Amino acid sequence: MSALTSDGEWDKERSTSLPTGSQLARCLADMAAFPSDDPNDRDDLAKVASYYVEAQADRPALLSCLRGVFDRDYPVGEVHRFLADLPVPLLIVTTNYDDLIEKAFRDKSRPFHLVAHPTDRKDLAASVLWWRPNATEPIAQPPNKLKLSLKDTTIIYKMHGSVDRRTKRWDSFVITEEDYVEFLARMTGQSAIPSRFKAHFRESRFLFLGYGLRDWNLRVMMNNLKAKPILQESEAMEDALNQSPPEAELRSWAIQYLPSNLEESLWDARRVNIYNIKIDDFIARMREYAK
Predict the structure, then answer these.
(1) b or e along 43-79 (b: 16 or more beta carbons within 10 Å of the residue's beta carbon)?
(2) Burial letters 165-185, b for 16+ CB under 10 A, else e
């Protein structure tokens, strides 16, 4: 259970579970003396993080604070354990910075590849970081040259970076407004997401767990995930030969408790069936179904 202060805020010193995005935003706002009391501003993590960098005059201060939040032994959630228990290789896409999904797979001795964007390494800005199973150091690869098999080993793809708790050398966070602008610019230019992943996304259904569509960043991301990737000539020929006949776009699923009318409309416009159920209840039902 999260430790909260008397006014309901997340307690950085005593909490035993991760903060939500809005809780983290308010924590950073207090530390940076954020000049607005408007909840719409104080709950906006990208806006607050941008101000934190400006107020402290350097990004390392923000990174140090984020490490203090995410470099802890938080309990693995039921959804993480459920994914690690599935007996098939998965392509898991997450925008979370924590390492709970990796910990769940390690606890089950399940191998996985880890791919993350090195936002805070400008010398590697045109690359992704790839950790092979059980590796502690990554390999930097251009996104369109990352040739991982999507059929034999789970891939955990952390689109917004990740804390590196093992070596503490590769922390990276897409978190400020400037980070999002840069990342989305690369995405629309098709130089961010590995082309193998995007090719797989075009013919796959998605299961969204815990995501809402109010955030415009996620909506832009979804539009670009389905876009046709730019392939090298040999890859393009292979892609054309293997391509199945065109079909209506596949519908996906979203598990979201008490969605608003706006959320329902946004999901439906993106051909996603939304289910009004708590994630833990959904996972419990899936475990019962799998017995």
Answers:
(1) bbbbbbbbbbbeeeeebeebbebbbebbeeebebbbb
(2) beeeebbbbbbbbebbeebbe
**What pLDDT does residue 123 have?**
86
Q: Does the pLDDT of residue 54 top 60, yes or no?
A: yes
Q: What's the pTM?
A: 0.87
Residue 279: its pLDDT value, please?
Answer: 93
Asked if 224 contacts 172 with a C-beta cutoff of 8 angstroms, the reply is no
Q: Please spell the DSSP secondary structure of the chain, one letter per residue.
A: ---B-TTS-B-TTT-SSPPPHHHHHHHHHHHTT-S---HHHHT-HHHHHHHHHHHHTSHHHHHHHHHHHHSS-PPPPHHHHHHHH-SS--EEEE---SSHHHHHHHHTT--EEEEE--TT-GGGTT-EEEEPTT-SS-EEE-GGG----SSSSEEEEETTEE--TTTSS--EE--SHHHHHHHHHHHHTT-SS-HHHHHHHHT---EEES--S-SHHHHHHHHHHTSPPP--HHHHHHHHHHPPPP-PPPPEEEE-SS--HHHHHHHHHTTEEEE-S-HHHHHHHHHHHH-
**Mean pLDDT lowest for which of 36-45, 104-113, 249-258?**
249-258
Q: What is the pLDDT of residues 135-189, one digit of tens each?
A: 999 999 998 889 898 889 999 999 899 999 999 999 999 999 999 888 888 777 6
Q: Of the segments 42-56, 114-128, 217-231, which one has the largest average pLDDT value?
A: 42-56
**Per the structure block, which two tokens stand in for 153?**
């080993």
